Amino acid sequence: MANNNKSIYSALAANLLIALTKFIAGAFTNSSSMISEGIHSTVDTTNQLLLLYGLKRSRKPADESHPFGYGKELYFWSFVVSILIFGLGGALSIYQGIAHIIEPEVMKDPFWNYIVLVLSLIFEGTSLFIAVKEFNKTRNGMKWWDAIIKSKDPASFLVVFEDGAAVAGLIVVMILMGISHSFQIPELDGLASIIVGLILVFVSFILARESRSLLMGEGIAPETREKIAKLAEKDVAVVRTKNILSTYQSPEEVVLMLIIDFEDHLDTEEITEAIKRIRENIKREFPLVHFVIIQPE
Asked: pTM, whole model, 2 decimals?
């Protein structure tokens, strides 16, 4: 997860650099869309801090109250981030935009807005480039959407979505703000704010969906289950693998339970030895499997 930390830190630095300048520029030029962008950057900054906190918590060693460790802390905080993107980012931006359309105010000289937006685009674009580069290392040739669906590490794609939404929002704001100022249509500035909010709401739904699935105990892929079943059945003591139960405790830790039908003539000692062999073979072949529980049928 070190690679993910790199993309998170780069996103945190970018958002800290531009959040304050967006608010100042928005206040001076009376721009609703710039205030929305400031809210967006503030929420993103908070999200990076929560993700880093979740990563730190997820690495706590197992103890008596959490025998399988604290890996799911990352999934919990990723879900919290998705809620923040929806509530503080999307909803507030939409509210700000609607309020500006109902009571439009003519924008002052947007020169400083453009300066801030261009700088923000550079910072956010750099952060997005780093995040995409790091995520590509984990895709293993899969298509983007397939990689996101199959990823068990929300931190790896969450930053990509956040930075992608930020860049898209900046482009929308720059275009509509320019048209609004040129043709004296202040409502367009509010419309830009609403579009930014809708982008954030869309992103929040995707992230909530993936984080929820992992938090609720998503298991290993069917093809991986089949490989583990065949590996267990190679042992001379095994008749067949009747069932496999699994859950991701963290992106790098899987808990696995196998219900196995052993040969009838085996005694307790022989079954115990077989269980030990199967457990070692699975852990050797699948490094992410940290806990293997085998139940004889």
From this structure: 0.76
